[in-house]
C-alpha cells in the first residue's frame, strides 16, 4: 500500500509517540497493526559495536534476539533523548531473518482508518499518509519502508570495493 488508504478499506493503526517532540506538542505516529507483532517492555540492551546510530543494540525476548532501533533518524528527526519505555516488535518480513524492535516513548491506542479523518499531506519516504486526531497530526508510517531505510544505514562494501581493498595491501 502506498499513499492514503484506499476508499472503503478499513485498517487498524497502533498509535505511539517518539521521545523527540517537546512535551507541549508531541507528534503522534502510527503503524498498521498488521505490521506489529507485539508491544513489550524493554529488556536490558546490549550495545552492538560499530553499528549505525539508528541501532540501539540488541535484547533477548523469550529467547529471541531482537535488534532495537530508533526510528527518529530514519524519519529525519534527531535521535530520541527522552526515556523510551516500550518496544514495538515488528512482524518479520519474508526476506528478514531476525526480529526488529522499534523503541518508542509510549504506545497509546489502536484506531481505525476513519478515526484519522481525510489524509491531509502527501506521503514521505517512510510515511504512508498524515491523518488528524483531536486536532493533532498523526503520521502513519510504512513499516516496510522503515526497515528498508534501516538496512540502508548499513553500508556494506560492494564486492568490487572489498576485492580492491584486499589487493591493495
Intertermini distance: 48 Å
Going by helix content, strand content and strand pairing, the class is mainly beta
SS summary, helix count: 2
Biggest β-sheet strands, sense, barrel: 5 strands, mixed
Strand composition percent: 35-45%
Number of beta strands:
10
What is the overall shape? globular
Mean pLDDT: 79
Structural description of this entry:
The structure is a single chain. This protein has 169 residues and is mostly beta strands. The chain has helices at residues 143-153, 159-167; strands spanning 12-17, 28-32, 36-40, 55-61, 64-69, 86-90, 99-104, 106-112, 127-133, 136-141. The protein has a five-stranded mixed beta sheet with strand order 8-1-2-10-9. A five-stranded mixed beta sheet has the order 3-6-7-5-4, with no helix packed on it. The protein is globular and about 45 Å long.
Amino acid at each position: 500500500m502506498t499513499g492514503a488508504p484506499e476508499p472503503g478499506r478499513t485498517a487498524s493503526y497502533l498509535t505511539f509517540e517518539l521521545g523527540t517532540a517537546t512535551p507541549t506538542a508531541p507528534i503522534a505516529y502510527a503503524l498498521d497493526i498488521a505490521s506489529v507483532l507485539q508491544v513489550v517492555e524493554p529488556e536490558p540492551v546490549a550495545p552492538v559495536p560499530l553499528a549505525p546510530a539508528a541501532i540501539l543494540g540488541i535484547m533477548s525476548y523469550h529467547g529471541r534476539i531482537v535488534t532495537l532501533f530508533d526510528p527518529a533518524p530514519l524519519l529525519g528527526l534527531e535521535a530520541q533523548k527522552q526515556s523510551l519505555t516500550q518496544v514495538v516488535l515488528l512482524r518479520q518480513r519474508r526476506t528478514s531473518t531476525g526480529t526488529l524492535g522499534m523503541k518508542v516513548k509510549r504506545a497509546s491506542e489502536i484506531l481505525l482508518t476513519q478515526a484519522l479523518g481525510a489524509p491531509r499531506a502527501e506521503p514521505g519516504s517512510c510515511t504512508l499518509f498524515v491523518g488528524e486526531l483531536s486536532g493533532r497530526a498523526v503520521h502513519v508510517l510504512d513499516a516496510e519502508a522503515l526497515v528498508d531505510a534501516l538496512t540502508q544505514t548499513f553500508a556494506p562494501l560492494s564486492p568490487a570495493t572489498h576485492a580492491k581493498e584486499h589487493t591493495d595491501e
